[in-house]
Fold:
Amino acid sequence: MSVDKLVNKALKRIGNVHPVVRAGAEEVIRRAYKQGISVLFSDGYRSNAEQNKLYAQGRTASGKIVTNARGGQSYHNYGLAIDMFITNKAGTSAMWPYDKLKQVARIAKSIGFEWGGDWKTFKDNPHLQITGGLSIAQLQAGQKPNISLKKGGTSTVNPSKPQTKPTTSSSKGLGLVDYMKSKGMDSSYNNRSKLAKQHGIKNYKGTASQNTTLLQKLRGGVPTASRAKGNQNTSSVVDYLKSIKVDSSFSHRAKLARQRGIKNYKGTQAQNNQLLRMLRG
Structure:
């Protein structure tokens, strides 16, 4: 399995985690892949209900105890944690060999993750998290983490080069991935797939032809979901995105905002109004 397919598979599994955690997960996969290790994630964001169900395991439900955290007491419940496992080259197996988990954890720690294998009690070797120094109590109280990955190890700050060379070119000699990086855009396979869908490129697989088409569309202007389409009367960016059948989740809105130069997106009314104007062109 190629590293891009591995990344795409993993990012689908972890769900609606914090954008920084998402970028870090991709970087971990790409770096580990270069070292001959294929790593995937079994878990990411977990709702309180899902957490309580997991907590019941080995207590009021069958199975063995796997967590001491109830709903709202795990960093998974705030999109700040992911659980890893080692897979084969085809991406069809799940293994947890300590030596390889530790090697992947070393990569993750170098870009800002904490590793559950370092805990003194209830060691959790598959577990990675980024907390921004916030305790569970602070997160429960509504505080938001101010987190970022360490420079030199993140897809959004100083990305690793993809395993496959960009196959596209432009009049200025930049391929699709390099062009997106030059504009400060998320160049991951997952985001390219979303942009391709927004621009009417069906069944995106990252082929040379598809990348060339997407590059041309991106060079034609700031990528938008669909100019002059959708609900032109709504004042809600969420409703507008839904009207053009585009992911309206916070994490995706944050990506759209970042692509358009809206810094430190928090979903404020002013930011949403600005994003809505840009999406409408």
